[in-house]
Specification:
6 strands, alpha/beta, 49% helix
Length: 232
């Protein structure tokens, strides 16, 4: 690739941008929630072993299994994420924040939690997903940048590009994406010209003892592979 490609890292072109730190936060769901997850995981595993033994694996079975378990993990992490955001606001004097999800019902549950939880009484939160029109989206961005919103709950695929949200310096991911580049684009909504913090933070919430642990490793391995290929 050296003969046909020149690579310029964002940090090399925009030297004024702050450092970005990626961190993983382990959380523990409620015992009842974890029991239900383990029950579903065991059911999937029994079906998998049965199909494997009988050489009858349906097309797409493994992907459907992984997708379902990842989805369940996203729902598991809503209450833990609310706790993390509440603590974050306490120690940062109510600094605004971005929260990224993948599934719509995970975003819905989070918005409902922010509305019902007394710790967030008096706060204002916006929502950006695939159903939000461009005009409304721009209004939300302007309100966020003007300090009129305490945070935005965003669908990663709907809000990973083209938005400047530098009023925040921290993004939180409840759910991960298969493509690490999508996550990096979402992280960089706060890591753009106009960011005045010394550091920006990308926080990934993860549940120990679930598919989350393996999925974290897979995505990070993919990130390392991409970086190695492009390191020219």
């Amino acid at each position: 690739l050296r003969d046909v490609m020149i690579r310029r890292l964002k940090k090399e072109v925009l030297e004024e941008l702050p450092d970005k730190i990626r961190q993983f936060v382990p959380v523990t769901p409620k015992p009842k929630e974890m029991t239900e997850y383990k029950r579903q995981a065991a059911r999937w595993l029994r079906e998998y072993e049965s199909h494997k033994a009988n050489n009858s694996m349906p097309a797409g079975f493994v992907l459907n299994m992984l997708t379902d378990l990842r989805h369940r993990c996203g729902l598991l992490k809503v209450s833990a994420t609310l706790n993390w955001v509440a603590e974050y606001r306490d120690i940062t004097d109510n600094k605004p924040i971005l929260i990224f999800t993948h599934h719509r019902d995970v975003g819905n549950a989070l918005v409902e939690g922010l509305s019902d939880d007394k710790r967030f009484t008096g706060t204002k939160w916006g929502r950006i997903d695939g159903t939000v029109k461009a005009e409304t989206r721009q209004q939300l961005v302007e309100s966020f940048q003007a300090g009129e919103l305490d945070g935005l709950v965003c669908a990663t695929l709907a809000a990973k590009e083209g938005l400047t949200l530098t009023a925040a310096d921290t993004v939180v991911f409840i759910e991960r994406e298969w493509v690490p580049g999508w996550e990096e684009q979402a992280e960089d909504r706060v890591n753009r010209i106009g960011q005045d913090s010394d550091t920006v933070w990308a926080t990934y919430v993860s549940v120990a003892g679930t598919i989350d642990e393996r999925f974290d490793r897979i995505v990070e391995q993919k990130r390392e592979t991409v970086s190695a290929i492009l390191e020219i």
